[in-house]
Amino acid sequence: MDAFTAGLLHRIRTTQSDLTHARETGDDFLADVEQAELDDLHRLAAEHGVEVGATRA
Prior knowledge:
Blueprint: H1 3-24, H2 28-47
């Protein structure tokens, strides 16, 4: 796995965790921000052929 793929998958996992935390604490604004970031990361992964698999929400 190259550094780009590893970094992207790490960012997806971190953002997913942050999104879960925002939802659990009722922070709707932060949840929206994290969801938008996660959507962008998934788009980037798809554009570069990175298989996200189980990290997808």
